[in-house]
Amino acid sequence: MNFPNPFYRWRPHPWHGLEVGENAPQVVNAFIEITSFDAIKYEVDKKTGYMRVDRPQRSSSLPPSLYGFIPRTYCGNRVGALSKQVKIGDSDPLDICVLSERPIDRAEVILNARVIGGLHMIDDGEADDKIISVLDNDRYYTDVNDIKDLPDVIIERLRHYFSTYKMIPGQEVNVSVDEVYSKEEAYKVIKAAQDDYEDTF
Q: Phi, psi at residue 165, to the nearest 5°?
């Protein structure tokens, strides 16, 4: 029997077994953990690759985009070195938000994401950047080539969501989203996260 190349007898780990994308950093693979309909914070279990329920969201706001990570990336010293405020990344794969005109209500999907910019978020003293992208073959976003091409309200929603999604009543949240950056800066963050991954694994 002839199998396609590559052929996976078992499902590859979403973080380590998938590719970052042939045209990275301009177009990357994104593994989606959360959709715009989720009031639960899901994330991939780092050991098994299965989806784990992290927590119910305390805030009433829903994610303004698809949300996941770029495979074979890691936010370590190189990502931290790009920050003006901190020196280290959050030791997770690099997060990515993907905008799509048509609602996508399924998580655990892989898609091609065209990178247009990013948010520099600091979470408890660590760089926790969010790459901003659009679904690569979504014609609605054909003319969106950089984050400045998006309506301001979309950026406001993203900033508000990430500023509040870790809120717990009675506890102070040490999170700030202090910078919105262009696709050129996002490319640097992706490349640094790829290099951090190679250094770590």
A: -70, -10
Q: What is the pLDDT of residue 192?
A: 98
- Lowest mean per-residue pLDDT among 11-15, 55-59, 104-108: 55-59
Q: How far is residue 153's CA from residue 170's CA, in Å, rounded to a whole number? A: 29
Q: Which residue has the tokens 């408890």?
A: 124
Task: State the sign of the Cα–Cα–Cα–Cα dihedral 115, 177, 66, 77.
Answer: positive
**Domain ranges, ordered by start, for the chain:** 27-200
Q: Are strands 130-135 and 95-99 parallel, antiparallel or unpaired?
A: parallel
Rounded to the nearest 5°, which phi and psi values hold at 187?
A: -60, -40
For residue 121, give Cα distances in angstroms to 12, 84, 110, 126, 159.
Answer: 29, 11, 24, 8, 9
| Residue owning tokens 């690759």 | 49
Q: Are 180 and 117 in contact (CB under 8 A)?
A: yes
- Residue 180 pairs with which residues in a beta bridge? 119
Read off the DSSP letter of residue 139: G
Q: Which CATH architecture has domain 27-200?
A: Alpha-Beta Complex (3.90)
Prediction pTM value: 0.93
pLDDT at site 40 = 85
First to last CA, the chain: 34
